[in-house]
Amino acid sequence: MIAQDFFGPRLRRRARQSDESFRTRIKLELLRERSTKQALICAVADLTGRSPTVFEPGHCGDTGAYGFPLSSVNNPVLGFAYGLAGGWGNRDLPFQVFITAFRPAREAGTNGLG
Description:
This protein has helices at 2-7, 19-31, 37-48, 60-63, and strands at 53-55, 98-100. By secondary structure, it is mainly alpha-helical. The chain contains four helices and two strands. The protein is 31% helix and 5% strand. It starts with a helix and ends in a 14-residue tail after the last strand. The protein has two domains: 1-31, no CATH class; 36-104, no CATH class.
């Protein structure tokens, strides 16, 4: 009843799911962070069991800077350098991300079935 009140038809009990497991899913959904890059990573990791790679072209932390030095005397790693790391950024793509999600790991003994 709690899941129906809070989530409507969006969160349903899975077949043969125990009360404790369903209660854990409800708590996770109630307290889940939303609308951030970290929330997106956590949601995909919860679905697949593996952490995705997320690239945001409008975020300089993901793209680096053109010709920015890799090291200095005071700080051995300041950022990325052209042609060495990161990806191409674009400030015309705010709030857009590219996600590389990985398939869940297969369970032993399933032979890839199921």
